[in-house]
Design a protein that fits this description.
Aconitase, domain 3, alpha/beta, Aconitase, domain 4, single chain, seven-stranded mixed sheet, 3 domains, binds alpha-methylisocitric acid
Length: 647
């Protein structure tokens, strides 16, 4: 199978392992990206590792999430990150410069390279023929330090795009079609490789839209070929020299193949509260809306804003609708301004926000209670918008604009405005002014990191003891997202550098008594989950904060890839037990005797439910390396012990 693009990318970066699906491989990482909401911990981790200088080809620290400066916390973090970028030799993208993913694709991404990012949407860079993977911050810190990245070898699915998109249907509808077919866990353990004649009509930023939301399918990565479209994109960005061709070989083989006939697609929409709840827009047309929101890494391109402007040209948004425009980068904003689209949007009544993630992660622009918000963002997990009783629907910019015009959910094919042809500008304004390059001699420039009072060191974790006893403090259902475990939003995000404080918010909207109960209970505790536990974001806070509260064991039917690794990295044992909730309930006490020995000796782990006096068998899917990490109490103590052994 060596000739599909995915295998070409993996083989050229393989440090250890083989391409056997499900076995552990280690790959060399060329580039990393970190953003502020996860990056502060990464920088603290680099400090703990005493790193002298980034060992990658390019590492970039972006500030795009925590932009609201309500008090000292977020700006203190910005200064801390700037000092850390200088100290460790990273590029720094200043607050307001824009969202990491499109910026990275424009400025640094290159076909054929690997990218690891502490953000689940890092996979967006697959749009230009990169192997781009989202991971927990600690693994990105290791990659910055020059260590390889370990991952289970995924299977490769070929998604062939055939034909041409009809008017009013765009890239977002393609990825929503994938979510309609496979739901939020259909991609777990897979890399999706897109090929086919339909690619010709998709720009590099259209491909970004599709690759980005591969995260919502749970896929390890999404990969596109690097072709003349990619070359044109890099040329327009003044980086044609970074282009190289990347195509599947003539006999490329795949573990699975599927076809999307683009001409047959229609506008789609994901209903609350899951990106997998996809239906045709016409099924829900007519529902009154409160907000239409355009922007985020899921629809970041110039055309995604320009088409909205063209549709609104000469019109005004319906009374009572808030049209929120969130430009993804200052560069795109400048191009939209140059071409008159900003003025058109403002005249139509749009509210213009600064370039960044903003409301996509609940950092402002929360919708009113129970009112429908149509968003071009990637996620609509419960409460993620910042409003507990929210009703966020995910759709294309065309559907958002058509609905903003009428005030109700509207299939864009039913508007009386003509479908405007929009192309990406061939000679865009290029703005690199908000990127600070790494200094030549980092350590000399910033000997000490600038830490505001809200920045606290990471709590220590403990090795596995000879017997693990844990009381079940919470039982949750299927597809619980990290947004539910560790909420984001303007209220919580400012504590991303302060684990004791952010721990106060763990599971707050699911069970507001959990934190108090965990604190009152002196011993270790367990959580029972359903299928796809921990889907969504890469935030390691969803593991570290509960660990700080005493979580040592999670039993679920299955786990999302990044969260599973984050649990291991912070010494929390993830086990699967079939129909766990039939055998274990809240308040039961579970005991695992000699856990280290059991993990090392096979994939079955004997569990005792001492409340019900029953014996259960759990399974673990840990590689040998993951077992040792877990037994040591997590990745940091494991690294320390390896260092000590070498002395
Ligand atoms: C997200 O979409 O949830 C984010 C913001 O990109 C996160 C990162 C975070 O939690 O800080 C992600 O997906 O990794």
């Amino acid at each position: 199978m060596a000739t599909n693009i995915t295998h070409q990318l993996i083989e050229s970066h393989l440090v250890s392992g083989s391409l056997q699906p499900d076995s552990e491989i280690a790959i060399r990482i060329d580039q990393t990206l970190t953003q502020d909401a996860t990056g502060t911990l990464v920088m603290l981790e680099l400090e703990a590792m005493d790193l002298d200088h980034a060992r990658t080809e390019v590492s970039v620290q972006y500030v795009d999430h925590n932009l609201l400066q309500e008090d000292h916390k977020n700006p203190d973090d910005h200064l801390f990150l700037e000092s850390a970028a200088k100290r460790f030799g990273l590029w720094f993208s200043r607050p307001g410069n824009g969202v990491s993913h499109p910026l990275h694709q424009e400025r640094f991404g290159r076909p054929g390279a690997t990218l690891l990012g502490s953000d689940s949407h890092t996979c967006a860079a697959g749009a230009i023929g990169m192997l781009a993977i989202g991971a927990g911050g600690l693994e990105v810190a290791m990659a910055i330090a020059g260590e390889p990245f370990f991952v289970k070898m995924p299977k490769v699915c070929n998604v062939r795009l055939e034909g041409e998109l009809p008017d009013w249907v765009s890239a977002k509808d393609i990825i929503l079609e994938m979510l309609r077919r496979h739901d939020v866990k259909g991609g777990v353990g897979w890399i999706l490789e897109y090929t086919g004649g339909g690619l010709q009509g998709l720009s590099a930023m259209d491909r970004h839209v599709i690759a980005n939301m591969g995260a919502e399918l749970g896929a390890t990565a999404s990969v596109f070929p690097s072709d003349h479209v990619t070359r044109q994109f890099l040329k327009a960005q003044g980086r044609e020299q970074d282009w190289q061709e990347l195509q599947p070989g003539p006999d490329a083989k795949y573990d699975r193949e599927e076809v999307i006939e683009l001409d047959k697609l229609e506008p789609l929409i994901a209903l609350p509260t899951s990106p997998g709840n996809v239906v045709p827009v016409r099924d829900v047309a007519g529902e009154p809306i409160y907000q239409a929101y355009v922007g985020s890494s899921a629809n970041p391109g110039y055309r995604d804003f320009a088409i909205v402007a063209e549709m609104l040209n000469g019109h005004r948004v319906a009374d009572g609708v808030s049209l929120d425009i969130n430009p993804t980068s200052r560069q795109i904003l400048q191009n939209l301004a140059r071409d008159g689209h900003v003025l058109t949007l403002l005249k139509a009544g749009a509210r213009l926000h600064q370039a960044g993630c903003n409301g996509c992660i609940g950092m402002g622009q929360a919708p009113a209670t129970n009112r429908i918000s149509l968003r071009t963002v990637p996620r609509n997990f419960p409460g993620r918008s910042g409003t507990r009783e929210d009703a966020v629907h995910l759709c294309s910019p065309e559907t958002a604009a058509a609905s903003a015009l009428t005030g109700k959910i509207t299939d864009p094919r039913d508007t009386d405005v003509p479908c405007p042809p929009i192309d990406e500008p061939q000679s865009p304004i290029i703005d690199t002014g908000q990127f600070a390059p790494p200094p030549e001699f980092p350590r000399e420039v910033v000997p000490e990191l600038l830490k505001g009072p809200n920045i606290q060191s990471l709590p220590e974790s403990q090795p596995l003891t000879h017997s693990l006893e844990a009381k079940v403090l919470l039982s949750v259902g299927d597809n619980v997202s990290t947004d539910e475990i560790m909420p984001a939003g303007a209220r919580v995000l400012p504590f991303r550098s302060n684990i004791p404080r952010i721990a106060e918010f763990v599971y707050i909207d699911v069970d507001p008594t959990y934190v108090e109960r965990a604190k009152d209970y002196e011993g270790a505790h367990a959580i029972i989950g359903g299928a796809n536990y921990g889907q969504g974001s890469s935030r390691e806070h969803a593991a570290i904060a509960p660990q700080y509260l005493g979580l040592r064991l999670v039993i679920a039917e299955s786990f999302a890839r990044i969260h599973f690794q984050n649990l291991v990295n912070f010494g929390i044992l993830p086990l699967t037990v079939a129909e766990a909730s039939d055998h274990i309930a809240a308040n039961d006490t579970l005991v695992i005797e000699l856990p280290a020995e059991q993990l090392r000796s096979g994939h079955d782990v004997a569990l005792l439910n001492t409340t019900r006096h029953t014996k259960l068998t759990g399974q673990h899917k840990l590689s040998q390396r993951q077992q040792e990490v877990l037994i040591a109490g997590g990745l940091i103590p494991w690294m320390r012990s390896r260092k000590d052994q070498r002395k």
